[in-house]
Every structure is written in structure tokens, then in C-alpha cells.
Amino acid sequence: MPGRPEVYELTEWGYRLEAVNAALSLWAAASPTLPRDADMSPDSLVLAMRAHARRVPGVTAGQRVALHLTDSRRGDGDPASYLARISRQRTRIDKSMEPAPVDAEVSATTLDWKAWMVGGVDAEQLPNIRISGQRTAVDNLIVATSLTPPGRGLARQRGS
Predict the structure, then answer these.
(1) Helices (H), strands (E): how many in the chain?
(2) pLDDT band at 158; cut points 50, 70, 90
(3) What is the mean pLDDT of the chain?
(4) Per-residue pLDDT tens digits for 70-111
């Protein structure tokens, strides 16, 4: 259909470039001209989250968050599903095809999820984010994967 972006799925071969993508993402996040309001595909957004993923020291027991992202650029279509595992040792996010027991579940458009994760906009201000389960698990996912490391402004952005 005219005006609609192409939709693709990364292959295993494509995922082998993840280390390169992570290095570029970390470099780009430091740019003062980074277009923080530009939309992304669900896979691109999750790859950025994975590039910035860090451990969360305050998490005593592992937490699991199901993340269902609908591509805002398309306006329709089924959401892509991912499973995030957050722990004191590391944070990992993988594509998820099967339902799994989770502490929290998030459904969001890519534009609103990115506004929360990157821009520090609070979820209550975003119309296309639905959260069920433990909000602390979702907050820990944001802390673990945001482009702004803890202690470098994210808390101030959220509070403003």
C-alpha cells in the first residue's frame, strides 16, 4: 500500500550484527541532535533497548515483563511480542512467541513506548500504553534499558 513502510523480520544472520548495532546505538545516544521523537519498528526499538540493557542492582529476585509493541507507523497489525528478564546480574529481552508467566505485561505503540523509555515521559501521560501486573517490574525495565543511564537525568526528566 502506498505510503506504508516495509515490514521485515531479522534473520539469525541479521541478529549477528547486534554487537555492531549496540556500539552504534551507544554512540548515537550521545548525540545532541538525536531525533528522540522519531518512530521506530518494534524490532528496532527492542534492539536499541538491548544495546543499552544493564543490570538493575536493586532487583533481588528476577522479574519478567511481557512487552507487546504495535508499530505506530503502520496504524494496524498485530503487535510484536517480547519477553524481558530483569535481574541484579543482567537484563535480557528476546522475541517471544509463547505466553509465559510474567510479573507484568505492557501493551503499547512504538511511539508511546519510546516516549516513555527514551524521552522520560510518564506512562500516565501516554494514551497508548496499558500496564497490568507489577508496575515496579515495568519501571525496572525502563531503568534497565533507557538511553539515559541511572543518575544522568532520567529521574529529573520524569519528575518535570
Answers:
(1) 6, 5
(2) very low
(3) 79
(4) 998 887 788 999 999 998 888 999 998 777 899 999 999 999
DSSP secondary structure of 94-132 = EE--S----SEEEEEEHHHHHHHHTT---GGG-TTEEEE
Number of CB atoms found within 10 A of residue 128's CB: 15
Instruction: Enumerate the β-bridge partners of residue 111.
Output: none
For 5, which DSSP code?
A: P
- Integer-rounded Cα radius of gyration of the chain: 15
- Rounded to 5 degrees, φ, ψ at 127 are -70, -20
- The confidence score (pLDDT) of residue 1 equals 44
159: cell is 519528575
Q: Span 24-46, mean pLDDT?
A: 75
Domains and CATH numbers, the chain: 12-159 (3.30.1050.10)
Asked if 149 contacts 91 with a C-beta cutoff of 8 angstroms, the reply is: no
Q: How far apart are CA 27 and CA 147, in angstroms?
A: 11
Can you read off the three cell numbers belonging to residue 23?
A: 556500539
